[in-house]
Write a structure and sequence with these properties.
This protein is 77% helix and 0% strand. With 317 residues, the protein is mainly alpha-helical. It is found in: Mitochondrion inner membrane.
């Protein structure tokens, strides 16, 4: 992949150890804050998935949750959300940058450009597999707290209780469906973001990226991130429903859940998820890119065709 970017004062070398450490910090900030911010919507979405007869719709879910527990009930599960997604974001964003760099180095520059979408997909999938190992225990605690009536609202009580009554395995019971949800989600999140960013700068932004101000670049980043988020929500929603029900109901299985909810029921809560994930993903990319600007990190532009490939194509005309 080409590493050309406008010369400016930078805080670290591209793909140096410091660069990847800063990517971890930026990823933790982007994911931890945004997921915590949408905790009320996530709570209603999870409850709608596991008890559709009671909550029925997004608005009904908010009303019932507020009526039963007040404002405090709408932020139930914020702590495991914050810690879990901060860890996940740190591993995911830094891992993506690392694997994209490493995988691109395994092939020549022309192939890296021509097959860059496959690089985005494999790098993001590799990063997410690792990130979910960090997230899974916190996701299990979050869903249990949000969907079990009268369950404790304190993570420091819920986690030891789950460990004592169900064993360590309870924290990773949902790892396979979590991978099924998060890996396609992340592959879509990174690949569609990269391709959308390329398209926006090539077709819609009226001037080259290096002539845009940092603020203008961040607006383009948010736009590309939001579009990517909508696509992410759609491809990952069925697995999200399964994860919610697995973590709520001890002893449940994927096959049993599929039989219970059916093909239509597995899409329940999609509207809430599109709103949540679209906004969340757009904000994540905005925060991550803004963090890079603030800390003076290298921010390479979208890849351009290598000169050698251009000459080959021109010679074939």
């Amino acid at each position: 992949m080409p590493n050309k970017y406008k010369k400016e004062e930078l805080s670290c070398e591209l793909y140096s150890n410091k660069f990847f450490m800063l990517c971890m910090a930026g990823g933790a900030l982007a994911c931890g804050t945004t997921h915590t911010f949408v905790t009320p919507l996530d709570l209603v979405k999870c409850r709608l998935q596991v008890d559709p007869r009671k909550y029925k719709s997004i608005f009904k879910g908010f009303f019932v949750s507020f009526r039963e527990g007040g404002l405090a009930s709408l932020v139930k599960g914020w702590a495991p959300t914050f810690f879990g997604y901060s860890l996940q974001g740190a591993v995911k964003f830094s891992g993506y940058e690392y694997f994209k760099y490493k995988f691109a180095g395994m092939i020549d520059e022309e192939s890296a450009y021509l097959y860059r979408t496959y690089l985005y997909l494999t790098a993001s999938a590799s990063a997410e597999l690792l990130a979910d190992v960090a997230l899974c225990p916190f996701e299990a605690v979050k869903v249990r707290m949000q969907t079990t009536p009268y369950y404790t609202s304190q993570m420091r009580e819920a986690m030891p209780h789950m460990l004592a009554t169900e064993g360590f395995g309870v924290f990773y019971k949902g790892i396979v469906p979590l991978w099924a949800r998060q890996v396609p989600y992340t592959m879509m999140k990174f690949a569609s973001f990269e391709k959308t960013l390329e398209y926006l700068y090539a077709k819609l932004v009226p001037k080259p990226r290096d002539e845009c101000t940092k603020g203008e670049q961040l607006i383009v980043t948010f736009t590309a991130g939001y579009i990517a988020g909508v696509l992410c929500a759609i491809v990952s929603h069925p697995a999200d429903t399964i994860v919610s029900k697995l973590n709520k109901e001890p002893g449940s299985t994927i096959g049993g859940i599929m039989s219970e909810v059916g093909l239509l029921g597995i899409w329940r809560g999609l509207t809430a998820r599109i709103i949540m994930i679209g906004t969340l993903t757009g904000l994540q990319w905005f925060i991550y890119d803004a963090f890079k600007v603030y800390t003076g990190m290298p921010r390479p532009p979208p890849p351009t065709m290598p000169l050698s490939l251009k000459k080959k194509l021109e010679g074939n005309k």
